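Sanity check. The docking grid for thiamine diphosphate depends on where the pocket ends up, so I'm generating a full predicted complex first rather than guessing from homology. Inputs follow.
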Amino acid sequence: MVDKNIFDADRETAWCPGCGNFPLRKSLAEALAGLDITPDRVAMFTGIGQAAKMPHYIRVNGFNGLHGRALPPALGFRMVNPELKVIVESGDGDTYGEGGNHILHNIRRNPDIAHFVHDNQIYGLTKGQASPTTGEEIKTEVQPYGITAAPFNPIKFAVAMGASFVARAFVGNQDHLIEMMQAAIEHEGYALVDILQPCVTFNKVNTYQWYKERSYLLDDDYDPTDYKAAVEKAEEWGDDIPLGIIYRNDARKPFRSKFDWLSDSFVKDYKEPAEYDDLMQEFA
Amino acid sequence: MDINIVVAGEAGQGLKTVDQIIGKSLHRLGFSVFSSKNYMSRIRGGHNFMQIRFGDEKVAGPVEEIDILIALNEDGVDIHQDSVKDDGVILFDGDKDLDYMQVPAKEMAKEVNPKAVNTVFLGYAWKLLGLPLDALKDVIKEKFGEGDIYDDNVKLLDAAYEKVDTTFDCELPDGDVKGLYINGNQAIAFGAATAGVQFYAAYPMTPSTSILNYLASRQDKLGIAVEQAEDEIAAINMAIGASFGGARAMTGTSGGGFSLMAEGLGLAGIMETPLVIAEVQRPGPATGLPTRTEQGDLSFVINASQGEFPLKVIAPRDQEDAFYQTFRAFNIADKYQLPVIILSDAYLADAGATIPEFKLDELKIDRNLVDENEWPEDKEYKRYELTEDGISPRAYPGQLEGEVVLLDSDEHDENGFIIEDGETRVKMVDKRNAKFEKMKREDNEEPLYIGPDKPDYMLVSFGSTYGALKEAMDRLNGNGHSIGMLSFSDIWPLPTAELEKQRSYDTKLVVVEGNSTGQLASLIQAETGLTVDHRILKYDGRPFNVDGLVRELEEEVIS
Ligand SMILES: Cc1ncc(C[n+]2csc(CCOP(=O)(O)OP(=O)(O)O)c2C)c(N)n1
Ligand code: SF4
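Predicted complex below; grid placement will be based on this.
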């Protein structure tokens, strides 16, 4: 097994002490090490936010791009490189707010990408505004009378869209989180893991304690391939929050397989321009 | 000999097919052909027309006067009849109170194939020109294949050919026919294919869409991936991700889509990721005139995205240039690890022209990636390693065993890690600027100069106005004037040596461009301090044409 310490970036983070991003990072390193994946075999894509700083704090190939835009470059990369593991790490604002259009279409595409959403139900980096998943009981500086739109349910959304892998995990249960991460990385297709990640600074409602009291692991006899059961499970929130693989559909083919003419090493394959003569003759 | 055919009708009447068949057939017969489109933003109805101009000498732009008008509907007659020359012919199937040639197209087609109405007009026109039918038939066969459709068309062509007498009697050029008949977007798309583009993502937007169409329809043959993105933001970010992966990547759009890409453009800039973007202009702002043409985005593309970072803008002057410049854009993007914008426009996108075959043998792909076999084992890889010329060794993830590659949109250090200290910030800005200076020295082509030494007037232009302007200049010089022209293709950074030379002459600078504010003129004044004496500006959504240019220059400038 790969030593999990090789993922240490040896850098000071900009995260607050006690932030849920720390156990998340630790779990990720353990998940990768457990799968025998070395840092050079992973490409991580992020947007902007506290969560999105991950490639600076863990040693893997990294692309720290634009707010809300982690999925598109991950897809472009996936198309030209079928070999590396592609992981997207992003916040709930990044993914479901600014990036809403991209998650919608990437579920439709089903590229082979593991997507870990650090869902702290708040905008951390910009200091505590509501995110699409912020609960109705929360008030912020920008939403002084309470949030103005109904909370977005990412699990229900992804299940309804027919995503090929939809899971929820909690940083307070690291063993389970690692298990979910590994299953997502090994899943051939788009795998969304919504990770409950307390923001100790700006979200005083959804704390470790709050999640601990409410979250529970799905039973062994829960069948994630049953769409109807998944839709029902996806509705659960509040007093009982299910953790685990809520839905999976392995019948869906990964996006790149629809381009069956793509070779695995085409990044290295260049033809001489003269070899395009027959294509030029179409214009003769 | 110089003949101008106009085919006018409404959307959905198959104008494009007629235009392609006539254009290609004339090209095969050895003529120089230039065709341009004029269409409205609708799928059916409205008024559209195609111009096909051909001659035994080079024709490179549209003219106003018409030799043969093929009017597929009544509007076609009404709108264009005044432009038809005195000895010109109008072909029309209908009843009007004026001088035209009655073509019983519907009646003739009804008996053979009602869908092939246009073929009757083709037969008439072809006979008027005195050209051999075989050329037409061959092109139709290539388009529809052998079978009923082809047979019906041949039947109608032969029947129509019998009905009229030759009027124009075009003499066939002799010698072997070589060369291509291609439009601007095809040239860009084929240039990208030849340069080895491996990933193209775009969101459809007129007039850039045909680049997407071309590459998408040949992606399996080329072994590449083409994706219709959910929006332009996704398109550019996908392309940057593919470029990170080591592939040659490109996106294409028009002004509105480019506005959405602006943040991504800066991302490629600070990440130092090679990227080629085709920005095919149409009049704006916002949705503007969707199917018309303009050169109104010059200032925008060179200044797009916040902050400062190097990029290059190339505005191809014609179809041939569009091909070579697109190929070159990929090499420059790779060499300097920055975005290169191909700034074209609707007019060039759709204009078909006969040009020499591309010299594929002379082209060389230069990736400028590290060689994994030569990377020293004990050397740590740093994506943004500081070097004298600002260009860092570029590797893609997985290329160097045990090493990782980190790109960042935040300001970063040599490793790609986020920084906030002022010293590193300055180093990184200087590094990116150093690349720009190197590019200015090594890869910035001076504008093309044509004309006499020390002319009285110098026509200065960029991009697609080249062809019409050149013809206009030739005509004026034929009338005894002394006029030269400077045509920019590399437009940012602005190459200034040729312009500076003009300081020493007593030459009046006349800037000719397709926008209302004189963006090129302002750029020249800002970059060189030279004074522009005249501006010829056009912003009615139509391209410059030779006749109009001659008239305007004679009336307003040279007098
Ligand atoms: C285009 C753009 N808009 C806004 C921002 C400012 N911004 C940075 S992070 C962020 C929200 C982050 O929230 P989330 O994704 O939930 O991540 P967290 O910080 O909570 O981990 C915003 C609005 C930006 N960087 N870019
Ligand atoms: S603001 Fe919240 S999410 Fe961000 S680092 Fe601090 S605790 Fe973590």
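Relevant for the grid: Chain A has a mean pLDDT of 97.
Also worth noting: Residues 21-34 of chain A form the longest helix (14 residues).
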